[in-house]
């Protein structure tokens, strides 16, 4: 395999971290206008781009048989930036913009700390090849996109300490928890083998259609609930 083909997955992974850095920059601007809309919306878009790159690098590695230990470690490091640090920065500036007490903003450090622990555990845990133990870190980012969007969109009470503290603590704990959750990798397309995956996809369409970006917060909560029900069936 030539050097170009071998490094295609790693190049895509680097697009992940590049988008994550852009998300952090945009998040730091809060609700200021950038390129025709609020900067935090661009942060959401860049995290979305990072998530697409995170999917495509694995797909490319499988397609090209370009697996490497470097790629595995690079993927985790980039995920830490895009799905651990970026959502924490989004929440920090969301709380600042909405005028919440300064001390509540510093609790966001739990998000990247637990995200780092989550990624480290995933890399050494052979049980997570087809499912997850703990909430995947991209799902963590999706939750905080929905949560912050709901705060900005007209529910600022969610940014008050009696809501945001338990939200940060519980969501961070979920990443390092022993809860078993199914992955979205399809081996077949049948309903019987994938009923919970199809239900999640249908739920995602419904929530996003009805609520827009804030629906992503509820989607992750539903995902956790579905995962618990699915694991209890086994």
Can you describe what's shown?
- The chain is mainly alpha-helical.
- It has ten helices and four strands; from the N terminus they run H-H-E-E-H-H-H-H-E-H-H-E-H-H.
- The chain has helices spanning 3-6, 8-27, 39-64, 69-97, 102-105, 110-124, 137-152, 161-176, 191-211, 215-233, and strands spanning 33-34, 37-38, 131-133, 180-182.
- Strands 1-2 form a two-stranded antiparallel sheet. A two-stranded antiparallel ribbon has the order 3-4.
- A hairpin with a 2-residue loop joins strand 1 (33-34) and strand 2 (37-38).
- Helix 4 (69-97) packs antiparallel against helix 6.
- The longest helix is centred in the middle third of the chain and has 29 residues, at 69-97.
- The chain is globular, with a radius of gyration of 18 Å.
- The mean pLDDT is 91.
Relevant terms:
234 residues; mainly alpha; two-stranded antiparallel sheet; 10 helices; 73% helix; globular
N-end to C-end Cα span: 42 Å
Task: Name the helicity range.
Answer: over 70%
Strand content bin: under 5%
H/I helix tally: 10
Over the alpha carbons, how many angstroms does the gyration radius reach? 18 Å
Mean pLDDT level: 91
**Shape verdict:** globular
Number of strands: 4
**Element order: H for helix, E for strand:** HHEEHHHHEHHEHH
Major β-sheet profile: 2 strands, antiparallel
Low-confidence stretches: none
Secondary-structure-derived class:
mainly alpha
Q: What order do the strands of the largest sheet run in, or round the barrel if closed?
A: 1-2
């Amino acid at each position: 395999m030539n050097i170009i083909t071998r490094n295609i997955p790693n190049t895509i992974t680097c697009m992940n971290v590049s988008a994550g850095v852009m998300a952090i920059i945009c998040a730091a601007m809060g609700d200021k206008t950038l390129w025709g809309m609020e900067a935090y919306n661009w942060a959401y878009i860049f995290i979305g781009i990072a998530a697409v790159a995170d999917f495509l690098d694995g797909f490319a590695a499988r397609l090209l048989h370009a697996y490497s230990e470097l790629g595995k470690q690079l993927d985790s490091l980039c995920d830490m930036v895009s799905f651990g640090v970026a959502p924490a920065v989004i929440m920090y500036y969301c709380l600042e913009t909405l005028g919440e007490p300064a001390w509540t903003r510093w609790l966001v450090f739990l998000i990247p700390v637990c995200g780092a622990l989550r990624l480290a555990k995933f890399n050494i845990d052979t049980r997570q090849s087809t499912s997850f133990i703990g909430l995947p870190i991209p799902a963590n980012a999706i939750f905080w996109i929905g949560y912050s969007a709901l705060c900005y969109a007209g529910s600022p009470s969610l940014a008050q300490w009696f809501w945001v503290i338990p939200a940060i603590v519980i969501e961070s704990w979920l990443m390092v928890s022993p809860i078993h959750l199914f992955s979205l990798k399809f081996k077949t397309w049948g309903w019987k083998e994938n009923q919970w995956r199809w239900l999640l996809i249908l739920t995602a369409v419904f929530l996003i259609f009805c609520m827009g970006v804030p629906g992503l917060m509820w989607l992750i909560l539903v995902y956790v609930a579905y995962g618990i029900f699915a694991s209890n069936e086994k």
